[in-house]
Design brief:
Pfam families: DUF5691. This protein is an all-alpha fold. The chain is built from 31 helices and four strands.
Length: 612
Amino acid sequence: MMNGTPPGGGTRADGEAGDPVGSRGSSARTGHPSADSSAHPLQAPAASPTAAAPSPPATAPSWEDLVTTALLGTDRRAPAHVVPGRPAPVALLDAAAAATVRRRAGLRPARAARRPGPAPADPRPALPAPAARRLSVLLADRSGGAAGGRRGGSPDLMELLPQWLAAANAHGYAAPPQLLPALLDAARGRTDLRPAALAFAGPRALWLARLNPDWRFALRAAPGGGAALPDPADAEAVRRLWQEGLFAERAALLGALRVRTPGLGRDLLASTWATERAEDRLMFLDSLRTGLSDADEPFLEQALGDRSRNVRATAAELLSALPGSALAARMAVRASACVALDRTGSAPAIAVEAPLECDAAMERDGVVAAPPAGRGERSWWLDQLVEAAPLGIWPGRLGGRTPQEIVALPVADGWQGELHAAWCRAAVRQRDAGWSRALLGSPSAPEAGGPGAVSLAERAKLLAALDPAERAVWVAGFIATHGLSEAFQLLGVCAVPWAPPLGQAVVDALNIARDAGSYPWSFSGVMGLAERCLDPAEAVRLEGLLAVPDEREDAAPGAGGYWAEAFQRLVTTLRLRAAMTRELSPPAPATPPPGTPAQPPQTPSPSREAAA
């Protein structure tokens, strides 16, 4: 089956009445057992001298009809236009063979178009030859890796492509022109590859994308849809594009301005805000996350009164990320009225009084009045107030305590789960490392959560607020206590390659799990992460685990073989990643052999004219 536009730029005309290929389609053969083995696969069998050939159908079945019949089976749905006396499966194969030829060859003439201009030059340095060969191999594995199934000890090359692209972009290399089509095909199939793949492909990828509809995503991903954006200093060009451009062009312009001149981007949006559609206002407002500062507060305060609830909610979320904003101050007052220190008991505790109502002012500030199913109203309102309040208010409100001391306090009347969960979301939103550290607690705490996290997913979000080194140490401690089975989500937020403490913890845990005599399938995801994230230097430590271990009496059958295969794949992948790094490194300048005398600087010889 083929898809896309055939060579030549024409349009398929399959399934049309009167199509010359389709009208002869029932006589084409596919080489099934009833066909003459000496005949060409697409050659019609010779007509019997005693029987007249049946008339072909006036209209050939469509490709969709053939696919549907093949999926349902000829017992449940007979093919259309079956020749009497021929088995239905044979007739379906004949029709599919003819339809395949028709889809490949049946074209409507394409409209004449102007010859495209030459592809732009890419000024970046050329990719080293070994790295270009490696990229070719990685891209060639695209179809094989997608086929699934057991890989044995072979690395999954397509999973290494993101790392390869990141390293190539870090060196600033240009993509080999002959590999651009395969690179665009890979990016088409995997959206996570697109940013790095398009950055590496450079301007020639956009030139190619204009010639192939399958690669249009590259134009949509490029700033301005592949067109050059005006210089921010050219006020007239910026105004013209903002007022006359397509939505994608305007969104790209606003995004680019927020990177370079955030105030100009905000003022441009404010100039047309009242005339924008609600869905466009929402998308444009989300662009203000880039370069967000206190200078954006007046505009965002205005957006709190927008007609669209989604626009109001986004404006409130952005304002709550500004601790000094008026909205943050209003939320702080509301949250402080609900949470206080109770000194009446034998030990200090936190007392919680959830709000009694959600008034219009709260709704304007982004509080959603209607709770989700199964949630009480007052608990829902409290959650939103505490999440939006600046975390800096709580030490002063709760007796000058540190975040660690605050989360250690008991919470009265069963409100601890709701209060700590709201603080977790506030810490993630405000990227507060101190509160994240306090809510995470010790890595030796139960897997379900620390003082404030109620799930591993929330712990992973809190970890993202810590610096990479501290994050790696915390996850290493978690693995040392709980093993790898529960660590998959936590490992996913750690920087690549994993820091030495984390890499050592992972290898040690794998060794312990191997000696346990079973191969939990939950480890497959962890092994895949290790292939991509372990430091390639760990391959030396893993070499001792490649042999099939002696199976214990209580071991699962075949577990040793699975472990040996998994470790072989892991070591092979780590060595491959090391080779990729070496291939991308620029060649070192040649040094003369030892003992070679230094060449004296050459003095220019006088010209003949000067001598004359």
